[in-house]
Write a structure and sequence with these properties.
Order of helices and strands of chain B: HHHHHHHHHHEEHHHHHHHHHHHHHHHH
Helix content of chain A: 40-55%
Number of helices of chain A: 13
Oligomer: heterodimer
Number of strands of chain B: 2
Strand order of the largest sheet of chain B: 1-2
Shape of chain B: globular
Largest sheet of chain A: 6 strands, mixed
Structural class of chain B: mainly alpha
Largest sheet of chain B: 2 strands, antiparallel
Order of helices and strands of chain A: HHHEHEHEHEEHEHEHEHEEHHEH
Distance between the termini of chain A: 37 Å
Strand order of the largest sheet of chain A: 2-1-3-10-4-11
Shape of chain A: globular
Radius of gyration of chain A: 21 Å
Structural class of chain A: alpha/beta
Largest interface: A-B, 72 and 71 residues
């Protein structure tokens, strides 16, 4: 329940208050809590262009109070950076302040469960990643305790296409050379993955299927460790997003052989897609919004519309691009279809692993 | 590629450093370093709220500033917390952060002897010393060292950890058998969580919060802090705290012998801090064990040895500084806390990477300069506070201990906002109490609990890399050297034991003493 959440947040704020000498906190802490929300309901801004009068009636005055977004990772990560950057515009489009609640743990599983178990009143929304979400409930080992029918997809917002990256001194100049080598030497090429059934793991499995061979998958804790393993020669090839790969490519440490998307990345426009090179491999991490099952359709549509308007804002597009993620808006129905695709991919990978 | 990153001709860039220091001394940066150090110390004193948690909570506050002052503020909080966490370790045996657990071992006995002020002053001076050495080494050899540290992959890390496990023998108390029991219990605790290779949850009681393993803070607060509160409550711990003189600083002749310990601690902390995946916890234990091993009076360790406070404190802050190096030079966060700081860089549109020094010297050098300022700020703020902190323990026990308990519960809850960690705290309070009653030393448990997770992860990764064969440990030079050293150390200690035993046997037979077994048991200590 969102009520509980707020209580929890109060607990941690109380701690800070104790810690940060009441002075510092009353001076700045108050700002911190409300600043991003304050400018939201400006009289001349969105309400006019926001919901139609008709919609307003159907949603029965929704939203009338702040909306809490659950982030299933600790504060300070990439998802949080995105949320902090979009707080203003998101609350402007929603017409109410946005509160952020961090529910980290077990690779976003704890947060996903918190979303599913919250009240379906439209005031608690999850900002979740795919395919991580699918990996949680498709894999029985994870003991998720929820299924795909327990939540409703609202909208896909951003995605981060993965690159195929090798060290600059590695022998492979093209994706084809790498694929041929894997195909001729099963189980020889090592890849640093970032968790069981993570996007990296799914890509490795996919490459195994395409080459009729296999990669040696080593599981690391996140992109920092995986990148260190690649640079240090403990991994031969990594699949990862722009945030970890582009700085290393720019430094001449790493060569990107392909981007695993249907179009090239603006960050490295010279790197061809895998598709262009004849390999249908797609890999990415994406962020979108989901609500607990039972949330009224009108509420889902209201939030989806707000997200759509946000993604059309040029300033927001620029801000996301600086973060290294790309915008791809999908409404509720398309997002469902997108998730279904990933569900199949995770199921297929799981079947192969067993 | 910048020269410094390649590690060629790593001359100390004195001019840049001085410029950075000058920038950091400007009022708009200076006050942030002081404010951060103060906030950090205060947060550190609160049990449970560790550096990553504290920085994450205060992160949005820093978004109000431009990047450089934001990082200066957050970094000052970071080493402030590292320092403040030891204050509660020393005064009431409650580690403010898991990294400060070692400060309990000798700091708390000093407090019980009425010399808490000495321990607190050593904490401050050791921290500053370690910080300075860390900063100097960061500037002098940081980039090439970070590059070298990339060679430490899973097999190398496993071999290093294997050697670290030998420290159990150094940390053991009166009886080897009890130390081994304690160490095995710690290993068992490190198994809680998700299997790193196949992803199956182990001993998690269906609680997803435990999928990431037992959080260190509630476990350490429980076994060290809560159990000690129980012992004080029942009267088994007697303090002579009333005799404590306010401002009982260490005398110079006490301080000088701790300098070598600080030097060694700084070096140990610096090197372990740079190695990816080694974490912030190992350096303090490594330093403590080193000091005990090298000491002419190892029997004083655990009973208020000054070197047992000074060395680990220096290691702690030196490691806090060197954990920045992989981020600043390679764009790889060296610890959970630094990962959050890296998030602040990215939030401001600057991605740390190999070009950071070259493209953003205006950002990097003031941050490094502010580390010097921040470490001085810590001492300026805290040396005068020693007397006040020391008086805290003169608060009547019934108020002090119940207040501390309440803080511990809130602190445990704040880790992941879940009651599960409160239960972990309470259960381990009882466990710690039981272990102390049975006279089982807690230090080996803490060591193996910390290292166990890393050791398992690195071994499993090693085997994933090799396709399941252990030969990889022999094929690579560093792990091979580690294994040989491990074997030599174990064999030599076995030989020494056996020889001592035989000598004992023969002398007692000759000397008609008869009670040879008793002698052997004593010898074993």
């Amino acid at each position: 329940m969102s009520k509980n959440r707020r209580v929890k947040r109060h607990a941690s704020r109380m701690l800070v208050a104790l810690a940060a000498f009441a002075l510092v906190l009353t001076a700045c802490g108050g700002d911190e809590a409300t600043a991003p929300d304050e400018p939201a309901p400006e009289p001349d801004a969105p309400p006019a262009e926001a919901p139609d009068a008709e919609e307003g009636d159907e949603t029965d005055g929704y939203p009338s109070q702040p909306i809490t977004f659950i982030i299933p990772f600790p504060a300070g990560g990439g998802v949080d950076a995105q949320m902090q950057r979009q707080l203003d515009v998101l609350s402007r489009e929603l017409g109410v302040p946005v509160e952020v609640d961090y529910v980290p743990g077990a690779g976003s599983q704890v947060g996903a469960v918190a979303v599913v178990r919250s009240a379906p009143d439209g005031y608690t929304i999850g900002m979740l990643s795919s395919p991580h979400l699918q990996s949680i409930y498709v894999n029985p080992d994870r003991q998720a305790g929820f299924e795909k029918d327990d939540f409703i997809p609202i909208a896909l917002h951003t995605f981060d296409p993965h690159f195929v990256a090798v060290r600059a001194d590695s022998p492979w100049q093209t994706l084809e050379e790498l694929m041929d080598h894997i195909s001729d030497n099963p189980g020889e090429v090592v890849t640093a993955s970032q968790g069981i059934l993570s996007p990296q793991h799914l890509t490795a499995v996919r490459i195994g299927v395409l080459t009729g061979s296999s990669l040696r998958v080593v599981q690391y804790d996140g992109g920092g460790e995986a990148t260190a393993a690649l640079l240090g020669g403990h991994s031969d090839v990594n699949f990862d997003g722009a945030g970890n790969i582009v700085p290393q490519v720019e430094a001449g440490e790493v060569r990107a052989l392909a981007v695993l998307s249907d179009s090239r990345s603006h960050r490295l426009p010279d790197v061809p897609t895998a598709e262009e090179q004849g390999y249908p491999i797609y890999g990415e991490a994406s962020r979108g919004y989901v609500a607990p099952a039972g949330t009224p359709d009108e509420v889902i549509q209201y939030i989806a519309d707000a997200v759509r308007r946000m993604t059309e804002d040029p300033e927001h597009q620029e801000s996301m691009s600086e973060l290294g993620v790309q915008i791809r808006f999908l409404g509720p129905a398309e997002y469902r279809a997108y998730m279904d695709d990933y569900e199949e991919a995770v199921e297929a990978a799981l079947a192969l692993l067993e | 590629v910048p020269r410094a990153v390649r590690g060629e001709g790593a001359a100390v860039p004195v001019a840049e450093l001085l410029q950075g220091l000058w920038a950091a001394l400007q009022p708009e940066y200076l006050w942030l370093a002081f404010a951060g150090a103060a906030v950090g110390t205060a947060v550190g004193v609160i049990p449970g709220l560790g550096p990553p948690g504290a920085i994450a909570i205060l992160l949005p506050l820093s978004f109000q500033f431009p990047l450089t002052p934001a990082i200066i503020f957050l970094a000052a909080i970071y080493y402030g917390v590292m320092f403040g966490g030891s204050i509660t370790s020393i005064l009431i045996n409650v580690p403010g952060e898991p990294t400060c657990t070692v400060a309990c071992f000798d700091g708390y006995p000093l407090t019980l002897q009425g010399r808490g002020g000495v321990a607190l002053a050593l904490n401050a001076l050791g921290s500053m010393f370690g910080g300075f050495v860390g900063i100097f080494l960061l500037v002098a050899i940081g980039p090439p060292l970070a590059r070298w540290a990339l060679n430490i992959g899973p097999p190398e890390l496993f071999a290093l950890l294997l050697l670290a496990f030998l420290l159990v023998a150094v940390l053991a108390g009166e009886r080897a058998s009890k130390a081994i029991l304690s160490a095995l219990f710690g290993l068992l605790l490190s198994l809680v969580g998700t299997d790193p290779t196949i992803g199956l949850p182990r001993f998690t009681f269906g609680q997803p919060v435990l999928f990431d393993g037992l959080a260190l803070a509630p476990v350490f607060m429980g076994i060290f802090g809560l159990s000690e509160i129980m012992r004080v409550a029942e009267g088994s711990t007697v303090t002579s705290a009333r005799s404590m003189k306010v401002g009982s600083f260490p005398k110079l002749r006490e301080l000088l012998p701790t300098v070598p310990a600080m030097v060694r601690g700084s070096g140990i902390g610096f090197v372990t801090g740079v190695i990816p995946g080694m974490g912030a916890l190992a350096p303090t234990f490594l330093s403590y064990a080193t000091e005990k091993k090298l000491s002419k009076t190892p029997e004083l360790f655990g009973k208020g040895a000054l070197n047992g406070v000074a060395g680990p404190e220096a290691a702690n802050n030196s490691a806090a500084i060197s954990a920045f190096i992989p981020m600043l030079t390679l764009g790889i966060p060296g610890s959970a806390t630094v990962a959050i700081l890296m998030g602040a860089f990215i939030f401001h549109g600057v991605t740390p990477g190999p070009f950071l020094f070259q493209n953003h010297p205006d950002i990097v050098w003031p941050i490094i300069g502010s580390m010097i300022v921040g470490n001085i700020a810590l001492v300026i703020l805290n040396l005068p506070m020693v007397g006040i902190w020391a008086r805290v323990i003169n608060i009547p026990k019934r108020y002090l201990l119940s207040g501390v308990m309440a803080l511990m519960v809130v602190g445990a809850y704040s880790i992941g906002n879940t009651m599960v960690n409160v239960w972990v705290l309470l259960v381990f309070g009882v466990v710690g109490y039981g272990l102390q009653k049975a006279d089982i030393p807690l230090a080996p448990l803490a060591l193996t609990f910390i290292l166990g997770t890393y050791a398992e992860e690195s071994l499993r990764r090693t085997l994933e890399m090799s396709g399941g064969t252990y030969a990889i440990l022999w094929e690579r030079p560093i792990p091979r050297a580690g294994l040989i050293l491990f074997a030599v150390l174990v064999a030599s200690s076995v030989v020494l034991r056996v020889r001592a035993l035989l000598v004992r046997r023969s002398t007692s037979r000759n000397g008609e003493s008869g009670s040879s077994e008793q002698n052997v048991a004593e010898r074993r200590d």
